[in-house]
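Lab notebook page, bench 4
Experiment: in silico fold of construct C2
Operator: M.H.
Input chain length: 310 residues
Purpose: comparison with the prior construct
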Amino acid sequence: MEAQIITSILAATIVAGTPLIFAALGELVCEKSGILNLGVEGMMALGAVVGFATTLYFDNPLPGALAAIMAGMLVSLIFAFLTITLLANQVASGLALAIFGTGLSAFIGKFYEGESLQAIPAIRLPLVADIPVIGEALFNQQAIVYVSWAIFALLIWFLYGTRPGLVLRAIGESPSSAYALGYPVTRYRYGAVLFGGAMAGMGGGFLSVFHTPIWSEGIVAGKGWVALALVVFASWRPWRIMLGAYLFGGVLIAQLFIQGSGLPINMPSQLLSALPYLATIVVLVIISRNRLLVRVNSPASLAQPWRHDC
């Protein structure tokens, strides 16, 4: 019985961490190019409502996932035009995008309140799913969870094993030097921002289509801000983003388990629900105290406007 409980908690932790993996990996690529996009929350919200509406219309999660990706890319393109082409302030533009996306998703979602989708069945991988305790947790998941692992592996290969990945990281450190060497800085930055938008949209689509197949206002519930925090927590390293996402998912599931277990804990449920976010803040404060760690690992040109005639 204890092993079954552990398996259930591990499986739920993986599911809870998956939208954060999508959004945080996308933001990582964006920041590696030197662009800080604080609009992840808004892009996730739009991806969630567009993905839900499209899935409901076609009765198929694949078009819904693609629509969520396109929604995130569309609004990120607006952000890219403002910050890369027009050199608008990245922090202000990102905050505006977060507010705009959250508000627009709430407006669009009014038409879909009370609607629900069919649950997406899990795909059980034979042999490996038979591993005691962790097998069912890791290898009896929805296909989109396996996709997140594939993107993680491909991203590591791209950033550290390919020439374009090296160029992207060089642009994040010094766009002027990269441009002097003949690299298309603007094109790379546009691509990075669009990838970040696509992943944020996919993270939102996961929440409304795969995780809880219903639409409700506020379904993202601050996860976009947590994804931004995870990039800093990870010191701009992909494998640490995976670790941080699952740690947050574990804390989230733990507080839900505590609330549903009936344990005699004299603590308001609202405080228990806030524990994952409080833990995120505490970790960020601890990391931020080490200024050397942040300065060494963060892209040198992050959030700094650049134009080739500067």
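Observations: Strands lie at 123-124, 140-141. The first helix runs from residue 2 to 32.
Next step: discuss at group meeting.
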